[in-house]
Amino acid sequence: MDKLQAMHVFQTVVDEGGFAAAARALDMSPAGVTRYVSDLEASVGARLLQRTTRKVSLTEAGEAYIARVRHILNDVEDARAVAQAHTLEIAGVLRIAASPLLATHLLAPAIAGFRRLHPQVTFDVSVETAGHAHSVNEFDIRLLSAPPDFNGNLIARPIITAIGVLCASPEYLAERGVPLTPDDLKQHDCLQTRHPDRRVGVLELTHPEADGLTIEVRVQPVLLVNFVDTVLRALLDGAGIGTQPMELVAPHLNKGRLVRVLAPWTTGQFTLYAALPSRKFLPARTHAFLDYLTECTRESVHTAMQRAVESP
């Protein structure tokens, strides 16, 4: 007896509500369906279905067995698809959802390089608007950031765990000087993002090389805004010193448009995730892009961290 086929026939009988309906769905004879189920019951040593002239219902043993059968058949299909993916061409449309910040500073810079490697892949990107987050099931990937203790009910692959850093433009630092201690921030123009979990006018700094020492510095923000991208634009234009996520600001640090200050002090930690559809096999193009995005982001952050060691 082919046990996997028998399990598949048994599941179909349950889903279709009877032997005759299962036979039609499977394009088999009713006798063949009956034989598979009988052989399966003999194999497990228990009656799985209660048969009457009017209906078929699960026994108590059948209820427990069908739950495991569904998992087994799903796993078998996933294994087949994973093996098959290695031979498939990396092509097709990659549908991605992301916030404006991630779409602009993380996703967009990766597209050109990825398409040079895989020109048959095209992108369909939906940028999420305020108050409207897309369902994960609508897309191949949904990019999101969350704190380290994030435990949402999602299938999510971590891209990178990053830190928040203080930075400013070279022009601003040339004019106002470089802060050497956290207390020096009180004498500088500080830019702050409004956040429900943070107090206005307070910067919380952590020193990773001093057993996680955390201090608070009170400042008077010259710019208070609820959109991180606005702070970034103001930083690039020399408006002051502000906090930015390392994985987003790394390209600007690497090109010298911004300079990290007060390293190794940090301003928080969070992880960038790629949320994936539940129970949906990932196409080869999705695997390839996640690998590429992860590698590029980590390389960019590593370079920026190395530069910060040499910064004033």
Automatic annotation (TrEMBL):
CDD domains in the cross-refs: PBP2_CrgA_like (cd08422)
Gene3D superfamilies in alphabetical order: 3.40.190.290, Winged helix-like DNA-binding domain superfamily/Winged helix DNA-binding domain (1.10.10.10)
Location of the HTH lysR-type domain: 1-59
Keywords: DNA-binding, Transcription, Transcription regulation
A molecular function GO annotation: DNA-binding transcription factor activity
Statement: the UniProt record of this protein carries the keyword Transcription: yes
Domain of life where this protein originates: Bacteria
Pfam families: HTH_1, LysR_substrate
Family indicated by similarity: Belongs to the LysR transcriptional regulatory family.
Name this protein carries in UniProt: LysR family transcriptional regulator
Species in which this protein is naturally found: Diaphorobacter aerolatus
